[in-house]
Design goal:
This protein has 208 residues and is of the alpha+beta class. The chain has six helices and eight strands.
């Protein structure tokens, strides 16, 4: 198969919600396990995030209900449209831009109401908003996190995506100190500080 066809097949398999090991995908697509890992990186560069479950029964599973950073639209984007409406003298363009702005505002309100229904406290909402901002602009973030086994610790992370699991928010991130990918439960993030430095998601050393 061509590379594009293989990618589509791999995506279709993962889209069933079932977990597939690298060995299974390699066998089904009749390509090497190394190429399967390369495909995973390619999908993530395109904004389609695939989680790695570790251990003897681990494998790849397609993440569901995630906000993909490149598609995020916020109030700052609406302000740009407002400015365009103000500056244009073209009546039809002004009307079209106004309609677009109204649709975006409606979608933002619906999304905010849906997302907030899974958030219990004001502090949790602040963490959620900070991480979404970091995801959109590729900011590094310093968090104070509670590990259920080892207690509190301060970590520097590169947030890559938010997703819902069992109606609770999680953040998939690269953990700088461990040089590895980790999943952080929003409810266990006590403090969240957006740093001045940014990161390039294409250069993250994702291990399998």
């Amino acid at each position: 198969m061509a590379k594009f066809s293989n990618l589509l097949v791999m995506l279709e398999l993962l889209n069933t919600g079932r977990k597939y090991s690298v060995k299974e995908l390699s066998s089904l697509l009749e390509i090497s396990e190394r190429v399967i890992r390369e495909y995973k990186v390619f999908l993530e560069e395109a904004g389609i995030y695939v989680d790695t479950i570790r251990g003897p029964y681990g494998g790849y599973i397609l993440r569901k209900n995630i906000n993909i950073p490149p598609l995020l639209i916020d109030k700052a984007d609406v302000d740009i449209i407002k400015q365009m409406i103000k500056n244009t003298t073209n009546v039809k363009l002004k009307s079209d831009l106004q309609n677009i702005k109204n649709k975006i505002n409606k979608n933002l309100l619906e999304l905010e109401n849906k997302n907030n229904s899974f958030i219990d406290t004001e502090e949790e909402l602040k963490v959620y908003n900070a991480l979404n901002k970091a995801i959109k602009y590729y900011y590094k973030v310093k968090i104070k996190y509670i590990n259920l086994q080892h207690g509190e610790s301060v970590r520097t992370i590169y947030p890559l995506g938010m997703y819902l699991f069992q109606e609770e928010w999680w953040c998939s991130s690269y953990w700088e100190e461990k040089d590895d990918m980790r999943q952080f439960h929003i409810k266990r993030i006590l403090e969240c500080e957006i740093l001045d430095s940014t990161f390039d998601p294409r250069k993250i050393n994702i291990k399998f």
